[in-house]
Predict the 3D structure of the following.
Amino acid sequence: MKSFFHVKDIGDLGAALEEARQVKSNPFAWKHLGENKTLMLVFFNSSLRTRLSSQKAALNLGMSPIVLNIGQDSWKLETELGVVMDGDKSEHLREAIPVMGSYCDIIGVRSFAGLTDREFDYAETILRQFVDYSGKPVISLESATVHPCQAFADLITIDQYKTKARPKVVMTWAPHPRALPQAVPNSFAEWMNAADVDFVITHPRGYELDPAFTQGARIEYDQMKALEGADFVYAKNWSCPGVTNPADYGKVLSKDMSWTVDAAHMAVTDNACFLHCLPVRRNMIVSDEVIDSPRSLVIPEAANRVVSIQVVMKRMLEEMQ
Ligand code: CP
């Protein structure tokens, strides 16, 4: 695996889930693979789970993880080509990336969408430079449009807790005070479309995700109707993807608190499990009652972040042996 951005990069999902089960039950069995190998984690943005789960998975595989926080530990980096660098940015990605690549065997990058220039974000302009200039396998740790390590962990969690062969999974938009990227819902849609689940997306009008990720999935604008009979409720906020109106890209179009997932929403489901990628704003995205209930899986879901990235890095290391 040369890079990990999309569901297609992991290949057969049944085989990936079986590998995830093996990694989960015996996390240290492949410690020899990472001997004398280095994982570099590059963060342009904050993180708790991704940062720690990636380091933990690397240690499980015998790798040495090193972490760089851009702009805090490093020089400020210029990301656009052709500019006169007379501002506060001291180094260009064009030099910084091959230097970083020379210090590691696998490179993970977190680089959120700027949410001002849809073309720049949806071209994955920063992540693509890591692919082009690092010379190493690259993992998206949430880039402008995708968060594959999260979506794979979400699928592992659904596989672990499902009680039906083909569960109904509903991804619902929920309100948030700030504009958030579409990477998590994009990837969740992409992975659920590839999985054996009955997948439904619900959001207010204007929040339509990019069809490249939703791929014809059922969209139901009536949230309560969408939630009826659900086995898993996946809550997430996202800002306007600019699909129906490009001028609205990155804007907060609604803060309608009737979309907050509470007990009344969960009551119409089939005793659904609640999922969220975290961090979560309590009583904006989800009520205390729901996230604190026994049906909330947010902690095991976060724990599965170690498993998902360990499977990815294990495969990359196997190809290097
Ligand atoms: N879900 C997730 O990616 O969490 P962090 O932003 O804390 O890494």
User: Anything to note?
Assistant: The chain has two domains: 3-146+305-320, 149-301. The chain has a mean pLDDT of 97.
